[in-house]
Amino acid sequence: MRSPLGFLVDMDGVIYRGSELIPGAKQFIERLLEEQIPFLFLTNNSQRTRRDVAIKLVRMGIDVDEHHVFTCAMATARFLARQKPHGTAYVIGEGGLLQALHENGYAVVDRSPDYVVVGEARTITLEMLEHAVDLILGGAKLIGTNLDPNCPTQSGTRPGCGATLAYLETATGKKAFTLGKPSPVMLRIARKELGLTTSQTIMIGDTMETDILGAVQMGYRSVLVLSGGTRRSDLRNFAYCPGLVLDSVAELSDRTRDLEEIFPAPILRADDTPHDLQEWIAAHA
Ligand SMILES: [Mg+2]
């Protein structure tokens, strides 16, 4: 029997912080594996390939493989392959993005590209940015893997893909299109990858602007965990809210509580029109 629910799980701030596992995260993932509940790790970091990410998790003691990982670089490459099959791209980014583009039939070029594609990159030079500006003004379309303005590092903060995009947008007057969370493009591909319906999908994350906003826009159920960058008092700054707030995923690893009991199947799906009065009354009781 197929599981009636499945999870899209953010990693940084949910599973680990930097190189440290969050207590209970390993047990939560082990539970999902044992109970055959489908899940996919979603990351807005385009630097690493899905295999790189899987190895990082394995080394932390979480026994998953690359099929459990979906990155914004993958969402970007699949989107471009659909918009313009076998296109060309000038890339400001690293291995994860380059590999995803190649796997989706794209060629990486320096001259006359269809797109300028920007991801996380720690080796950007002013020459690369100048060249990108020329290409965009010459007609190449600007694509970003994600909008995150910065990324936390071991020693502090470094500028993220969103900052690079803002630079290029200001210089060219062109607006980028981005694919990572909270983009419906990434969240929809991820759900379909698991074979779930909208009402079966539950997003777990620590960031309101990406994880929770994305879930709210898609009609997925959402869980905000406070083990990352968001505090309970931050919720008042947002006009939307998560379905459930937990200290961490450790609260979902207690096997005496059934996950289906914590997340009962909604009788009425968000996208359903009720046809039965008794069903409607039961759902709203
Ligand atoms: Mg996070």
From TrEMBL:
Divalent metal ions. Mg(2+) is the most effective. Its EC number is 3.-.-.-. The active site is at D10 (nucleophile), D12 (proton donor). GO terms for molecular function: metal ion binding; phosphatase activity. Its cofactor is Mg(2+). GO terms for cellular component: cytoplasm. Keywords: Hydrolase, Magnesium, Metal-binding. It comes from the Bacteria. Mg(2+) binds at D10, D12, D206. Belongs to the HAD-like hydrolase superfamily. This is Putative hydrolase YutF. It comes from Bythopirellula goksoeyrii.
